[in-house]
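Re: duplicated header lines in exported structure tokens

Our pipeline writes sequence and tokens for each protein into one text file. With two proteins the header for the second block appears twice in some exports. Here is an export where it did not happen, for reference. First protein block:
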Amino acid sequence: GGEHARRSSLLNSDELLFCYYDDVRTAYDIFQRGVQVSNNGPCLGVRKPNQPYEWISYKEVSDRAECVGSALLHRGFKPSRVQYVGIFSQNRPEWVIIEHGCYAFSMVVVPLYDTLGTEAITYIVNKADLSLVFCDKPDKAKLLLTSVEKGETPVLNTIVIMESFGMDLVERGKKCGVEVFSMREIEELGRAHRQKPMPPKPEDLAVICFTSGTTGNPKGAMITHQNIVSNASAFVKTTEKTFMPSSDDVLISFLPLAHMFERLVEVSSSCTELLRSLLFLQNACLLNPSDTCYSFLTLAHVYESLRIKVLTNKVCLIYLVFTIFGQADTSLKRWMLDFASKRKEAELRSGIVRNNSFWDKVIFRKIQASLGGKVRFMITGAAPVSASVLTFLRTALGCQFYEGYGQTECTAGCSLSLPGDWTAGHVGAPMPCNIIKLVDVQEMNYLAAKGEGEVCVKGPNVFRGYLKDPEKTAEALDKDGWLHTGDIGKWLPNGTLKIVDRKKHIFKLAQGEYVAPEKIENVYLRCEALAQVFVHGESLQAFLVAIVVPDPETLCNWAKKKGFEGSYEELCKNKDLKKHILEDMVRIGKESGLKSFEQVKDIAVHTEMFSIENGLLTPTLKAKRPELRKYFQSQIDELYANAKM
């Protein structure tokens, strides 16, 4: 495993975990086990806003899935590891039905993100040679037809639409050589020409997950059935002694199903007796206090309105409490919230997690009720959560709350909190399916001998490579099978891993200093007045500049303390206030140990949040640095020009 490699303490030998159940080796096996142990219980549920959930049983899902797969075979598709099927849809039962229809006949699923953009969708269709794509809405079918009409995706010849549509789409498709079917037509075709399942082997491809990427075109990570099963098994192994799922538990699907983290959590639930997966439409209300079925919650964001703040370390404990309660408006209430949190934090440090303490009854019950009152288990990953936010959520919700770390290239996770360790500020220990080592990054002064370096992962959960891209594959996977993540990690004394930096985004300034902008951004985000920061530097410039987005929730109060008043927009245009913001950033930078060349020399204030919609964040809320640089090029040029005057 290498000089600095570490494995999970849950393993009894050096052999890594490939599967939890001997009869479960593929994603197809996982679902079949669910059918068996559920006794045809409820499998998928969905509801519209303010409507009751409607459930589909395991047997019905299995039956419809086999019909979909049979229809594809009847139309000439092959049960093959190189037979790719596109799914261009938001989360809904049909997504899972199509997925398992593909698995039943050894075909490969290629999910398409809603937010990838037209160019990326066209790129994926061509890269994966997708002749057929399932769409949830007619608008997406129209987008695909437009690309065919322009000659951009000549390989695409079949579109299946889940929702109702007009005959105009069928006629439009005929004119450019594309057949358009409804989901019902496909299922009926399969039912009329039913085939016996042809299951995959563990080493066969299951999913090609195109990572959104922060640079260039998306890369198609090739994920095998063995990758999925080993990663899911490791999750179950980690939690087996402290969390016992039952048929009454419900999994809430929130992240896009195209995201491997979401897929892994759902697969893991099927590995055990956690038998229901709750799917809901994009416009359904997630956090409705009247819903009481929530007992297993996948967490990407606690509340959509707090999404950016949580992921950028901007929610302090009291601020989050105020947001949820909406009524902590007196000194006494603030004191009680703070006191109650400290009491429960003390229990956490002792490994105690509960929701029936005195403080739960008098302080935290409302927060627990806002999630339905029955949450037993939560997990967060895909983007960092600050220690204060994670600690608060653990105290307030009183449920087991795990944090993991990983990336699509290791299927989903490679490290996870250990049961009983509810400390924050790290991403847990290696999972039982992989080993982790840190390797030197000398240009950033991170040395493995000191317990620091680039995080590298090896095990059965590590992907096969990028689709038709040997050059990028060689960059990610070395000759010994180690995945180089590009993240900088540090081993803590208790054996857990802390992510401290990012290797891939470092650059060199004019005088030769190496700079890691994401580390600097995370420091500046501690400024009370700021919501988002983009730090920029160039090899021909001797210093850094930044684009900052003030926090609409806190700017006015912060400015008032400095003697400024006005609306959010007025304050953002105030040059004197900008100086105060820069001074605050530099102060916090010094307190956090930033070197002088790591401090920004000037800033431009921007009023619109970086978002998925404006193309500045990826679908997993990571900064798209090339797009940010291009978007703010004029402001960046002006900052450098003014500095030279």
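Second protein block, exported in the same file:
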Amino acid sequence: MGDKPEKQQVSEILSQLQRARRGQVRTSAVIAQQKDTLKRLIELTHSPHSQLKTIAAQNIKLYIKDFPELEDDAINAVYDLCEDSDQKVRKEGYRAITAVSKELRKWVKRNADVLVQLLQSDEPEEVEVVEQQLNEHLDMDTLATLNVLRDQIVPPEEPLEADDQGTRDRLRVLVLNFLTGRGKRHIINPHAPAIDGEAENALAEALLQVIPLLPPHEVETVVKELLIPLPSFSRASKQSTVLMEVILEAAKTSWKAETPPAGGRTSLPRTRIYLDLANELLQKGLGQAATFLRFYLTNFVSKAAQQSLVDDAQCIVIRHVADGLKLLLENVAGSDERTQIITSTVNGSGFLYATFLDLNPELKSWPSCAILLKACKLRFDSRQWRPSTDLLATFQSLLDTSSSHETLQMNKEAAEEVQSLIRPMLQSTPGPSTPATPRPATPGPSNVGKGTFSNNKPSGGRVQIKRKLDSELGRPAPSPTRTSGPMANATVDSRGDRSLPPHLGPNRGDRQRTKTAPSSTRTTPVASDAETPPKRQKGLVSEGSVPSLLSRLALAPGAIESKSDPLALVPAKRRAETEGVQQQTKRPTPQRGRVSSLHGADLHAPAEVGFSIKGAAARAKQPTPEAVGRGKQCETEKDKDVATL
């Protein structure tokens, strides 16, 4: 039969097709005739004549469904037509694939995979026909066809041979071009009512998985031309949040690869694609501003990161941080995460301000600078933050730059806003916020009245002020202890006054002068009219000694006769304790003419207040004979008083 002329063969096959179609009732004879016709069409696919191949391609679909035993032979014959040397025959073969899929839906997935392979054709006309057939497959079975397309763009898990990997890479590009080109309207528009349809979700999930494995420019194509136009990405959703996270993770990986060595600078040729994509998603409301800003604060808001970027890349970082911060500030609904991100941005904004000041005038984005300052002003007004000294200097530089004639000409409105934000912070902040140096605690009025003070000791920290009179009455003296705090600043002279009985202490005028004396100035002992008697040896006063009449009279209420002193109405013990506390912080000046009134009282015995008075004797001058005589006379009088008693 192959030896017959082409024209005769054409006439015979057309007559055979006509007889097969006439069988309205599928009798055994009709079925046999149709089966013979299908076999003849399969044979003609290998004919050397293009017309016969074309007839076969156009009519195989008529009988393939009725004879399952011939399906494989018929499908393979159609595939052979797609590889024919004649372009016209190949085009008919592409259409025959779709016709077979319509008759037998179980072949949709396999036929779609073949059509994807046929996208590699070098002829644009043929590629157009193949894409048309893919669109028809999308209309027939969207899920099955999208799964085929997804499998072609996802890189293989295992490495391939060099040739196979090259073919796979070319196919991925071709499929992406189809999805973002002629296939886009068949994926999006017809399925718009099914916003959360299974087919769309399958495609979105596949693309989200493949993004980390694609080059940056292919990621840009997928996101802008395919994912964002999908109905499920028309508003914020779980998938849009995942998309933002995937893009930022890809940007982080790319930034690590592009980080220059020490001293180098980079323009971020690959990372910038991801950064722009993330910012576009943010502006469309398809991502979280907190997630966006956290990424920049972690990776780009630092001195080292800013120094490793060229000016243009620095400008992009500042703009993007400001864009994210603007959305976060507009979201008035407070949350811990929002507050934390704003605080972190304010704390790291100093690096961005310094970078901003170094940029060329044409690269400065004053609106972005104003947004950053709004966050600082918000924190400043909350009284929870004050700018440091370095940041205040930076604010002053920003104020000066924004006030320049050149800046006002180019960005008058934004520059004036910057000035209005900076001035209140400069005027209300005298300096950096540093913690005040803690001062030693001083006794309050209530403690003074009680004759006690706080020395940071356990059990309330209360220490009784001992009077000199206790030793004169023969009471056992407690062992001296070292003290710290205000007691350590007491001078020898102040301790000498504290050991006096209350009615023998300085008069009111003397105490007034003592209070006005600076506590930080050491006083110099002033010589009195009568020199101080020699220091009595320790141990002369024993427990069994009898107190003198003068000592007992000093304790009697009637002995207090001084009416000029406001403390005269206070009992002697309380007044002595009060004076002792007052003298802890105020260093009195020794008074003239007061020693002779003691009548032999021991000025130099250790004051039992819990601290040492070593060196006090060295400051007292040697006694004169006159003073020694008066001292002996006092001792004689005391002996007479004891005898009388």
